Amino acid sequence: MKKGFTLLELLIVIGILAILATVVALVLNPAELLRQARDSQRLSDLRTINSALGLWFASASSTSIAVATTTCTYGSTQVDGTGACQQNQVTTVNGAGWIYGIDFSFVPGGSPLARLPLDPSNGATYHYDFSVTTSGTYEFNANMESARYASGGSADVESNTKDGGTVDAVYEIGTDPALDLM
Ligand SMILES: [Ca+2]
Ligand SMILES: [Ca+2]
Ligand SMILES: [Ca+2]
User: Fold this and answer.
1) Cα(88) to centroid of ligand 1, in Å?
2) What are phi and psi of 171, to 5 degrees?
3) Closest ligand by atom to 167 CA
4) Which ligand has the nearest atom to the CA of 150?
């Protein structure tokens, strides 16, 4: 009667497990999955604030529109009343946050957002941008980082042929006719 495993059998099992672990890591690519998760969050956030701002413009009276007019290039956004272009930090929805000048409490029934979302990474490379004109057209930008969602990826959302924007390397959404504010 054979009892337990021989050393050879154990080595074979260990070898198979090692190969399986390598294959799983290559196929699933945990780092890429994390990048995709952050990109999914970016898409969700931009669609949410795009809808919220559309609602704000649909319901705000002319006296409540006091939008900022400074246009910041991608890489910075207006976050205060000084006209300076800075990185997003302030998330209040009362017009002092990074969607500067838009007081979401004017929306009947209250602000559709409790806080303004920030990019999951929110640094120099990955952050949300906002630009608006006095006529009320606007544009939001976010930078995708995964191989899947970035320009040229299998689910490319960034290329201008996909989002109708002006910068292939970022995802653009908004009501500005040509999305050419940034
Ligand atoms: Ca990108
Ligand atoms: Ca684009
Ligand atoms: Ca643009």
Assistant:
1) 18
2) -85, 125
3) 2
4) 1
pLDDT in tens, 7-64: 999 999 999 999 999 998 888 889 999 999 999 999 999 999 999 999 988 887 654 5
Look up tokens 């090692």; give the residue: 18
- Report pLDDT digits (tens) over 140-171: 999 999 999 999 999 999 999 999 999 999 99
Which of 143, 144, 142 is CA-nearest to residue 48? 142
Please, are residues 131 and 138 in contact by the beta-carbon 8 Å criterion?
yes
Alpha carbons within 13 angstroms on the beta-carbon side of residue 54 total 11
Alpha carbons within 13 A on the beta-carbon side of 21? 6
Tokens 């246009």 identify what position? 71
Contact 9, 17 (CB under 8 A): no
Q: What is the distance in A from the centroid of ligand 1 to the CA of 170?
A: 5
Residues 79-88 have a mean pLDDT of 56
Give every CB contact of residue 142 below 8 A, 6+ residues apart in sequence: 42, 43, 45, 46, 119, 126, 127, 128, 129, 170, 171
Closest ligand to Cα 181: 3
CA of 166 to the centre of ligand 1 (A): 13
Between 74 and 67, residue with greater pLDDT:
67
